[in-house]
Amino acid sequence: xxxxxxxxxxxxxxxxxxxxxxxxxxxxxxxxxxxxxxxxxxxxxxxxxxxxxxxxxxxxxxxxxxxxxxxxxxxxxxxxxxxxxxxxxxxxxxxxxxxxxxxxxxxxxxxxxxxxxxxxxxxxxxxxxxxxxxxxxxxxxxxxxxxxxxxxxxxxxxxxxxxxxx
Length: 166
Prior knowledge:
- By secondary structure, this protein is α+β, with helices and mostly antiparallel strands.
- Helices cover 25% and strands 31% of the residues.
- It folds into two domains: 14-110, CATH 2.40.50.140; 127-165.
- It has helices at residues 63-69, 127-132, 134-137, 141-165; strands at 25-37, 41-48, 51-58, 77-86, 99-110.
- A hairpin with a 3-residue loop joins strand 1 and strand 2.
């Protein structure tokens, strides 16, 4: 069941959680990209439009958040508060791969059924399926990048025309 934010505010985006934030407490919100349960630890890759950050839930970190993390599935929307720490085994393929968030609090903002398409870059799905589930397809990083480029190009043109008008 979805929970209310009750005044909880995001302190940074997922892609902004880097080494300079080590030791600080952050609140991030985003979609669950992937969940891995290793028994005593649960790892969640949390995604927003800026990138992916790894969140770790453990019985020793916070028992309540750990119990709630058992119900997390792909594409759930979460709000996580925790301390940023250096990872024991860094993933150098990710911009945020040197750090992780030790989750102290978890709010499940929205639950989701298993999506009909994966939300990942270079998706190999038929165009008919991608168009049918366009709202999911637009969450993919490559399409989001295209939308940002389109926005910036249109903004440059609008700013130029506004300057010429005045």
